Amino acid sequence: MKGLEPLIGAWTLKGHLAGADEENITGRTTFKWLSGGFLLQQDAEINFLGTVIKSREIIGYDAQSRTLKSYVFSNLSPDPWPYEWEVNGDVLTIRVNYGALDATFTGSTRSFSGAWTPNPGADPAANVAYEITSERTHD
């Protein structure tokens, strides 16, 4: 969990679909430790191609699988979506494989910038490839 410490704070996001120049993804996200320091909360509001996504994600360490796992609760689904997080140095990898969702984010814990890409065989309609860059707004 301590590998996620560089993410603490607020970030503005902007981005675009892979291979496109038009910036059509904007938003804001914040990361904070919950009381006790065992769980990390991410709150986001993102305009993704005209669709406003509001979400809360709770990230924690799962001792049984020895992985970082999270659940995202959003206005897109009545069910939480499960994700797995991995930190290797300052490389951040986030994976989702739930229903039609099957994609991986590869980026940096230092800048919270990177790209989501569909995994091999994933439905490209449900797993759109896109890139984001982020800028810290405050700690």
Keywords:
Lipocalin; 10 strands; 139 residues; mainly beta; 0% helix; globular; ten-stranded antiparallel beta barrel
Strand content: over 45%
Assigned CATH class: Mainly Beta
Binned, the helix content reads under 10%
Number of DSSP strands?
10
Largest pleated sheet: 10 strands, antiparallel, barrel
Residue-averaged pLDDT: 94
Q: Care to describe what's here?
A:
The protein has 139 residues and is mainly beta. It has one domain: Beta Barrel (Lipocalin). It is built from no helices and ten strands. Strands 1-2-3-4-5-6-7-8-9-10 form a ten-stranded antiparallel beta barrel. Strand 8 (101-108) and strand 9 form a beta hairpin.
Provide a concise account of the structure shown.
With 139 residues, the protein is mainly beta. It is 0% helix and 65% strand. The chain has strands spanning 9-17, 25-33, 39-48, 51-62, 67-74, 77-88, 91-98, 101-108, 114-118, 130-138.
Topology:
Elements: E1 9-17, E2 25-33, E3 39-48, E4 51-62, E5 67-74, E6 77-88, E7 91-98, E8 101-108, E9 114-118, E10 130-138
Antiparallel strand pairs: 1-2, 1-10, 2-3, 3-4, 4-5, 5-6, 6-7, 7-8, 8-9, 9-10
